[in-house]
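Title: Request for sanity check on RNA polymerase sigma factor prediction

Description:
We are preparing a figure and want to confirm that the structure record we downloaded matches what your pipeline produces today. Could someone re-run it with the sequence below and paste the raw structure tokens into this thread? We only need the token string, no images.
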Amino acid sequence: MSKPAGTLPDPSAAFSDPDAPLLEAVGRGDRDAARQLMARRLPRLLAIAQRLLSDPVEAEDIAQETFIRVWKAAARWRSGEAKVETWMSRIAINLCYDRLRRRREILTDALPERVDGAPGPETALSLGQAARQVHSAVASLPDRQRLALELCHFQEMTNIDAAEAMDISVEALESLLARGRRRLRAVLTGQEDALLAGFGGDLPVHEGTRG
């Protein structure tokens, strides 16, 4: 979300953003800074792409394409417009949405493998029964609800940062979170405590949002 024309960047934003100096160096062609930025932000980008696409290979493709775009656009980035991690997350999200749209466009009589977003057999075998049920419940959510939960609960973004990454208002994000939680409660009715204990307690299913 860009600032109005003529608005000066907030100096404190760059100071509070640990990635800003790295991205500025990337904009000057510093490959070592690019490697550092990649090492720092790769896990989050992979997690976002994996949550949306349910395919580790595609998730790696998305992360690679995100860094290529960051490299090309770094010189045009201006501190104070958005946190670097938020900007990079938004690039990855848009790339994932593009892939999801292409998947739907090529649907024929044969459905693409794992189009419903459920964990694959290798993942399923590595998870306990309780964790599989929670993962399946999250995977059954619509794309935007699943992404909102991923950003706010699994990636621990604030509502403001998550909304910016998704390019929506905070109110819209909170609506997605509320609907996602309601749907999860409906799927996990009567077994939330046991399932979430098996999952590690990472995913709240009660009302309320992160600030």
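Thanks, this matches our download. The chain has eleven helices and no strands.
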